[in-house]
Amino acid sequence: MKRRFFVGVLGGLAIGYGLPADADPTRVNASAIEALLSGNTIVGSWSSAPYRQFFKSDGTTIYVPDVGRPDEGRWRVNAETNNYESWWRSTGWTPYAMVRTEDGAYAWVNGDSLEPFDVLEGRQVE
């Protein structure tokens, strides 16, 4: 009984912090997110779907999936929550935590999984 309670508490803490229980990532703060994304492109996969995304310094963004049509949206950083927030016509504003993984890579926290990405300097989308 005690073990089940202990495991439940650990799982609850992981969910409470919004990070996967088996990962040891470090949360990226708002100013670092802004400096990392503004004027740059990221390349990654979201739910196993590869994409590129360019973040203009004016708060607009271009999302280019490997399969499908590009989309334009907006982005911002919330200094109070240290979340990246994106806006798309289909979803409105949605917050995401960004983390730095043990191996030094970056990833978005998407529910209970991490969505890794690499940062490329400048605009690298068409």
Category by helix and strand content: alpha+beta
Q: Assign a percent range to the helix content.
A: 10-25%
Number of helical regions: 2
> Uncertain spans, ≥5 residues at pLDDT below 50?
1-17
The percent range for strand residues is 35-45%
Beta strand count? 10
**CATH structural architecture:** Beta Barrel
Which oligomeric state applies? single chain
Average pLDDT confidence is 86
Instruction: Write down the domain tally.
Output: 1
The backbone outline, from C-alpha atoms, is globular
Taken in chain order, the helices and strands follow as: HEHEEEEEEEEE
Q: How far apart lie the N and C ends? A: 57 Å
Q: Within the CATH hierarchy, at the fold level, what is the topology?
A: Lipocalin
Strand order of the largest sheet: 1-8-9-10-2-3-4-5-6-7
Biggest sheet features? 10 strands, antiparallel
CATH class: Mainly Beta
Radius of gyration: 16 Å
Set down the secondary structure blueprint:
Blueprint: H1 2-17, E1 26-27, H2 30-37, E2 41-46, E3 49-55, E4 60-65, E5 71-78, E6 83-88, E7 92-96, E8 98-100, E9 106-110, E10 113-120
Antiparallel strand pairs: 1-8, 2-3, 2-10, 3-4, 4-5, 5-6, 6-7, 8-9, 9-10
Describe the structure.
This protein has a ten-stranded antiparallel β-sheet. By secondary structure, it is α+β, with helices and mostly antiparallel strands. It has one domain (24-120): Lipocalin (Beta Barrel), CATH 2.40.128. The chain has helices at 2-17, 30-37, and strands spanning 26-27, 41-46, 49-55, 60-65, 71-78, 83-88, 92-96, 98-100, 106-110, 113-120. The chain is built from two helices and ten strands; from the N terminus they run αβαβββββββββ.
